[in-house]
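Think of the structure tokens as a kind of shorthand, similar to the way a musician reads notation: each symbol stands for something richer, in this case the local conformation of the backbone. In the example below we present two proteins back to back. Begin with the first one, reading the sequence and then the tokens, and try to describe in your own words what changes along the chain.
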Amino acid sequence: MPYVPDETRGYVLPKNQRSAEEDVFYTTNRFGMRSAPHDLKVDQGAPDVPAVIFLGCSFTFGLGVDDDEALPFLFERGSGGQYWAYNFGVPGQGAHETLALLESGLIDQALGGKKQIGRA
């Protein structure tokens, strides 16, 4: 997966892209996050579904596995749609990039007002 420069975090994943590396597919949504089951739905309703945010590096992102094998994807699918997972993981990023992400407002923008689990 190629990266693009980002003023806040140094580099991020490109938006709305599908790429392959060694028989593994990586798909990102309009915010540059790894796709989750709710990204695949035509009807983006269900505003009352709580959001669960996944932060981290390559493990969270799911480096080396297909979209439907990444931990956040499996979590959302396993919840039966009770929760929507948001995968903010980016390979190689650490605590300082995660802090910049939290302070940037991108999470709130991506969630579009959804209630977040563990955050008031």
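Once you have a description of the first chain, move to the second and do the same.
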Amino acid sequence: AFNKKDLFFLRKKIEKSFSNSTSIIYGNLPPEVKKQQTYNFNSRITKFLIATDAIGMGMNLKIRRLVFYSINKYDGLEKRMLNHSEILQISGRAG
């Protein structure tokens, strides 16, 4: 997802369906919280990770499957669809 509102909506939906808690990561999350969320996910304390494209910033995550909730992103000027190369870059760097 590309905004915090969607992240928290998705977390609520996932935790309603599964008993495992989720990790959550977004850009302006404090570094120590990001580090803890990353640890929880990589250590399998949490089964799911819900994140913005911040996960594509060299976080070394043990991701087996990546699902885009949306391919529309606000780029600072307008909301637009990601192009093919942006999708590949985000997914490649995330996992």
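Compare your description with these statements about the second chain. The chain has a mean pLDDT of 88.
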